[in-house]
Amino acid sequence: MKALNPPMGWNSWDSYGTTVTEEEVLANAALMAERLKGAGWDTVVVDIAWYDPTAKAHGYNTDAPLVLDEYGRQMPDPARFPSAAGGAGFAPLAERIHAMGLNFGIHVMRGIPRLAVERDLPIKGTSWTARDVVDKEHVCVWNPDNYGLDQSHPGAQAWYDAQIDQFAEWGVDFLKVDDMQTPFHRDEIFAYHRAIERAERAHGCDITLSLSPGGWLPTMHVDFLRQVAQMWRISDDLWDRWDDIKAQFARLARWVLFQQTGHWADADMLPLGHIGLRAERGDDRQCALSEEEQRTLLTLWCMGRSPLMVGGDLPTSDEKTLRLLANPALREVTAGSARNAEIIREPLADVWGESTEHAGEYIVWRADAADWGDGTTTAHPGGVYAALFWTGGEPKQVRVALSSLVGLERSGKQWHMCDLWNGEGEASVHLEGEGAYRELVAQLAPHGVAWLVLEPGE
Fold it and tell me: What is the DSSP letter of 34?
């Protein structure tokens, strides 16, 4: 099954925007293979505009001279991707990524290049041309590269079939398709799904489909999304701002109930490490989130079983970031947890009295330890994962009843705690009280988290 567990990988967007080069992709892949593959990171994705020779940081180019083949299909810019010269496309780069034991992915925009329509290029395998299938009304509002496709015309499906067939020939394992869900283009999504199925049958391969972006995405669409895709975004772009992270609590709480083997709601890329080198937003920087906020981000994504796609340039990211990403608990929890849920969300004040202002929210998530869906035995039989979050700007002591995490019937048993961020041994959380009335007590940093696994004793 494709995407049996939430995918984990690297995407070039947060670091390089539209401008990433082959050399930079290979450098990130090499570091991933050397330092992070053992912790579950195994996918490398080239994001938008790999076919634009005039690509620049901070935006898109109108009327860009996109590199297209004779059928109007996007080709990698050989100046940035030298191995693509001579019509080789991404096949040589994919081969090198695969040789590292990693998967290779690319980004593509919905629709057909405007330049292909201007040139009225033929659609491969048909008597139609780009002008026969174009829909100039349904265009992306933020990217000028493409027109929409008239899905009532059979040539529209033929265009996607030919495009995806070429991707499969190159060895693409992961396809991020943009401008699909905001607004929700049902017919376009289904057309991509059909094209991928055909390419997989023809080439004997698997291609994971990731849909983007996801602003205002309702859970009402989940049955359709499970039918057609393995990943779908549930928010617009997320950056290294605390407000962006805080907003994902409610989204993941809403979507975690719908997470299912092979089909994952995606809370977006992780803007961790060295980002903004030539990105759409912000200057060259190490992630602006505090270390506590970074742990909160990773913990929330894992407890919500979101895919993990880091955006920082790995070779130039700080060592603290690489250690966070190498934590085996990330893969352990995303792959090996079940019945994940937010069980407590309470606004708390610093002092009780007449004031109605709250200092922050105290949020608790829990999940049962489970196998990885492929028969791999859980590392914590009968165990429970717990995450205690504090969104306030000052330190806060918090409490949660043990029974709220393990259940009333098991609350009187012996339990051992292990801190998933600080390593083996006792967690930073401690137990107070007796028997079934025990509570976990934690001192949380501003915007901080305590993440632990509870294991039943004798």
Answer: I
